[in-house]
Amino acid sequence: MDLNSLDKINIEGLEVFAKHGVFKEEQFLGQKFVVNATLYTNTRKAGLSDDLTASIDYGMISKKIVEFMQENTFELIETVAEKLAQKLLMETERLEGITLEIQKPWAPVLLPLKNVSVKITRSWHEAYIALGSNMGDKKKYLDEAINSLDNLDYVRVENVSDFIETLPYGGVSQDDFLNGCAAIKTLYTPMELLDCLHRLENEAGRERKIHWGPRTLDLDIIFYDDLVMSTKELIIPHVQMHLRDFVLVPLAQIAPWVRHPIFGTTVAELLEANKKDYIKDKQFI
């Protein structure tokens, strides 16, 4: 999510008396905190209509901040900021991102300082997940994977392609695959999302015995915003997605306009350019 393209609503200097801190005295007696928040959204519709329901009610947000900080106790203001950002993003319609600064002016450090603070920015991210199965009840595995994705704490499934039957990829003798793609919004980082996908695969009985071998469930991150990353554990965009019709066909059904952040071409253009034929039957199921 490109927060720079969005409008901002600012809340500055919200004072809250709450009980957060490492020391028992802080958690018992409490102290003053000051919260600054920048809400990233699109105010165009509200500005044209003069309708509060088309924007974000900063009074409501301020009340939620106060209630959260007074109803919870954490040792670290880092945790206060993280948990509060997650709560507001999950519960506030049209809120795409948030910058939170939690100030602790009475921090007990026994030195003459004006303030201690933590400042974080968190936002929703757009990601595309490829799904595949070629063992047992394939459609059931994919349907359950979609449902499990949508039930993850910080994931919203936005769109799901139809499923297509495809030939095996990689030269290993095995049953045909059922493949699809899902568009999601998530608060997870790429590595956190990968861990979640691996957990769902394990819950479906996935065994990693043969490279490109049969599997009950295969979940891959294809795109994550416009991110380009390469680590031992994860490469984004998926390194071979542009060569795989079984990824491009369902992905083009739900996101033909999305551009590959390295090649600069759309999913529809990548599909047109890819002449390899791994699709057994290009009819959607």
TrEMBL record:
<protein>
    <recommendedName>
        <fullName>Bifunctional folate synthesis protein</fullName>
        <ecNumber>4.1.2.25</ecNumber>
        <ecNumber>2.7.6.3</ecNumber>
    </recommendedName>
</protein>
<dbReference type="InterPro" id="IPR035907">
    <property type="entry name" value="Hppk_sf"/>
</dbReference>
<comment type="similarity">
    <text>Belongs to the DHNA family.</text>
</comment>
<dbReference type="InterPro" id="IPR006156">
    <property type="entry name" value="Dihydroneopterin_aldolase"/>
</dbReference>
<dbReference type="Pfam" id="PF02152">
    <property type="entry name" value="FolB"/>
</dbReference>
<keyword id="KW-0067">ATP-binding</keyword>
<keyword id="KW-0808">Transferase</keyword>
<dbReference type="GO" id="GO:0046654">
    <property type="term" value="P:tetrahydrofolate biosynthetic process"/>
</dbReference>
<keyword id="KW-0418">Kinase</keyword>
<keyword id="KW-0456">Lyase</keyword>
<dbReference type="GO" id="GO:0016301">
    <property type="term" value="F:kinase activity"/>
</dbReference>
<feature type="domain" description="7,8-dihydro-6-hydroxymethylpterin-pyrophosphokinase">
    <location>
        <begin position="211"/>
        <end position="222"/>
    </location>
</feature>
<dbReference type="InterPro" id="IPR000550">
    <property type="entry name" value="Hppk"/>
</dbReference>
<comment type="pathway">
    <text>Cofactor biosynthesis; tetrahydrofolate biosynthesis; 2-amino-4-hydroxy-6-hydroxymethyl-7,8-dihydropteridine diphosphate from 7,8-dihydroneopterin triphosphate: step 3/4.</text>
</comment>
<comment type="function">
    <text>Catalyzes the conversion of 7,8-dihydroneopterin to 6-hydroxymethyl-7,8-dihydropterin.</text>
</comment>
<dbReference type="GO" id="GO:0005524">
    <property type="term" value="F:ATP binding"/>
</dbReference>
<dbReference type="InterPro" id="IPR006157">
    <property type="entry name" value="FolB_dom"/>
</dbReference>
<comment type="pathway">
    <text>Cofactor biosynthesis; tetrahydrofolate biosynthesis; 2-amino-4-hydroxy-6-hydroxymethyl-7,8-dihydropteridine diphosphate from 7,8-dihydroneopterin triphosphate: step 4/4.</text>
</comment>
<keyword id="KW-0289">Folate biosynthesis</keyword>
<comment type="similarity">
    <text>In the N-terminal section; belongs to the DHNA family.</text>
</comment>
<dbReference type="GO" id="GO:0046656">
    <property type="term" value="P:folic acid biosynthetic process"/>
</dbReference>
<dbReference type="InterPro" id="IPR043133">
    <property type="entry name" value="GTP-CH-I_C/QueF"/>
</dbReference>
<dbReference type="GO" id="GO:0003848">
    <property type="term" value="F:2-amino-4-hydroxy-6-hydroxymethyldihydropteridine diphosphokinase activity"/>
</dbReference>
<dbReference type="Pfam" id="PF01288">
    <property type="entry name" value="HPPK"/>
</dbReference>
<dbReference type="GO" id="GO:0004150">
    <property type="term" value="F:dihydroneopterin aldolase activity"/>
</dbReference>
<keyword id="KW-0547">Nucleotide-binding</keyword>
